[in-house]
Amino acid sequence: MPQPVTDLLDVDTLLSDEERAIRDTVRTFVDKRVRPEIGQWFEDGTSPKELAAELGELGVFGMHLEGYGCAGTNAVSYGLACMELEAGDSGLRSMVSVQGSLSMFSIWKYGSEEQKQEWLPQLAAGEALGCFGLTEPDYGSNPSGMRTNAVRKGDDWVLNGSKMWITNGSAASVATVWARTDEGVRGFVVPTGTPGFTATDVHHKLSLRASTTSALYLDDVVLPASAMLPGATGLSGPLGCLNEARFGIVFGAMGAARDSLDTALEYATSRIQFDKPIAAFQLTQGKLADMSVELYKGILLALHLGRLKDAGRVRPEQISIGKLNNVREAIQIARTCRTILGGSGITTEYSPLRHANNLESVLTYEGTSEVHQLALGQALTGISAYR
Length: 387
Description:
With 387 residues, this protein is an alpha+beta fold.
């Protein structure tokens, strides 16, 4: 039996004992809990509700945050957990990164002490799910055009508008909703049971099928003044949250790529054609070699960004390099692995095509490839090409 492809460069030597232990714990959970079921979940378009509590018990929700029941791990450990979760399925990693890096981070970074005490322990334990309402039906890559608004009415705020493509939306107990106000864009902590708040699921998806994706509607949602996040004014608030989530994607995409390559390698060494394993053919070995090179480059890039983040030096354009490269390469690896599997690769029995379908969403959410190209172009030239 061939060794997993990630042994080729002795990546483990770059990790601490604690980082390896966290990675292995999450890998074991995915192997035992997710792999036996994920093909059926994807086919059925379901995400088991009990997973939230199990992931909370595992300790991955908000694991890189300090206090309030969070584990307080370093950024690399969080990234490695994302890699293992996405090796299971991108939808699983999406649930965790939206919970921790968007919902929880927005409250942890910008919220009042009362908001933190009320919500973070519940979210960390998986007793509640959170979602993050920024994207709108007509304003995806351009959040500055958002139409959702919040108007003061006495001591309260009244919110109206809608959000689209919201992970965890209909399953969430609390939503961080960003809205336009007279003083700029502000964030609000919205309990989903508030009158006027509704969420409907998006169906007929070809991607992220084992994940809850919703539209949010706010119709005269009345909130007390204390619902506003006091520490965030303008778009820097939500964009700062997105940078946290993109960091998890940099690692996560490599998990999907690694699982695809491991699957293709196992299949190629056991599938016999013309009286020998298809792994013995030069064309197959060329594919495997090229894919492993791109996988290693992506993993090393992710680890480098993780070390920069732990040192407090990572910049948004550096995260853009990671997101742009790693998702783009991961989807190509998954597609190529499907070709090695031949006709068998189109079934849910094997993971590469499922990963490729999921990565179609990862390619465009939290910044499309084009947006990250423009972010890098601006960093290189000093000229913004967004308008």
